[in-house]
Amino acid sequence: MSSHTDTPATTPANQPPRRAAVIFIFITVLLDVLSLGLIIPVLPTMIKEEFLQNDLALAAVYVGWFGTLWALMQFLFSPLMGAISDQFGRRPVILISCFGLGLDYVLMAVAPNIVWLFVGRALSGIMAASFSTAGAYIADVTPPEKRAASFGLIGAAWGIGFVVGPAVGGGLGEYGLRLPLWFAAGLTLLNALYGYFILPESLAVENRSKFSWKKANPLGALKLLRSHAELLGLASVLLIYQLAHQVLSNVFVLYTEHRYAWTPKTIGLTLTVVGIMSVVMQGFVVRRTAAKLGEWRMLFIALICGGIGYSIYGLAATGGMFWAAIPVFAFVGYFSPAIQGLMTRRVNASEQGQLQGANSCLMGIAGMLGPVMFTNVFSKGIQNPIGELPGAPFFLAAGLHVTAIVVALVIMRRSRKMAEA
């Protein structure tokens, strides 16, 4: 385990050209996220209409379980993917995951009952755990001082995927609820073939570490985060941030329908605007300002603006006020590249895959806790006997950001004291 601070990972002797490699990973993540986004508009309707005889209440329960199952698979398998990639390289893990994800979409497209759909969703969560390997690939081929900008580009891929994917999936869903699944399968398998012929290996043999089940299970992977006091603190900030972010995926639709009577069209338009802002922020602003601001400033800008944005969302009495907060909230786009840059500096080259697996475990934990926590807070808020408080979940998210800021301040000061010593 590493116990050093801000030490660059060793650059592999056979490292591929950095720009070409980053662009490939950008395309890979974009296509994988696009495929995930394609099924967002149709999966709940498919569950309700084809398997549950239009029982909306029961469908909502199943959709919640599907989300928890996907997060659980991420939690369990991300460290395994990371540990395997640390021994055998990033290329085989990324390619197997891409092929597996494509075949999984085929399975869901032909699923005869909801049990098979559950199996497909579980496999999707396992295969999507390769996103952590993509992060390790970026760390392999990018110097520490440029990682924040490169991770920002990957964030832009997520933004584009979730802007275009749901729009295309919704359009295809008009011609058949299973059509988006077939389209996602084709797209993902084509990407896997593209990667088979184009993707170079990023991890040199001398920087690989032997596979160990102690590292490959969630608890073992999380031990890496305790190997360095600053790394553990940064991991805590990441977990708190990811937990707060769960409010959007679990409460946003319910909240805007209840408070502003928004239609699906308005909700979709708002998500498109949010996605575009994310692309602009991470694809352009982060890349042009990362070196000047530095990772710590980026981190605090993201947490402060995110807290302010959540507060405005919770206070907004009209839809127009809610929209006004979107540009402020967009600055959370600084968070992922900043936290990734800071954390990857604190482990060596042979631990980058394990680190990304541990980070995905944290995201999985947040994904398992967030849905229940925020939906219950929303339910209590709108049933408050003293007075309705629908914005309560967003106030909770803002409070979590304040907590993350305090933790980050402690870690930053400790880091600077160690650097001066």
TrEMBL record:
Provide the topology term for how it sits in the membrane.
Multi-pass membrane protein
Please verify whether the record's keywords include RNA-binding: no
One GO cellular component from the entry?
A: membrane
Q: Where is the Major facilitator superfamily (MFS) profile domain?
A: 21-416
Q: Does the keyword Chaperone apply?
A: no
Q: Which residues cross the membrane?
A: 21-44, 56-81, 93-116, 122-139, 151-173, 179-199, 231-255, 267-286, 298-316, 322-343, 355-374, 394-412
This protein's UniProt keywords:
Membrane, Transmembrane, Transmembrane helix, Transport
Cellular compartments annotated: Membrane
Chief location bin? membrane
GO MF, one annotated term: transmembrane transporter activity
What family name appears in the similarity comment? Answer: Belongs to the major facilitator superfamily. TCR/Tet family.
User: What is known about what this protein does?
Assistant: Resistance to tetracycline by an active tetracycline efflux. This is an energy-dependent process that decreases the accumulation of the antibiotic in whole cells. This protein functions as a metal-tetracycline/H(+) antiporter.
Specify the protein name. Answer: Tetracycline resistance protein, class C
- Supply the source organism for this entry: Aureliella helgolandensis
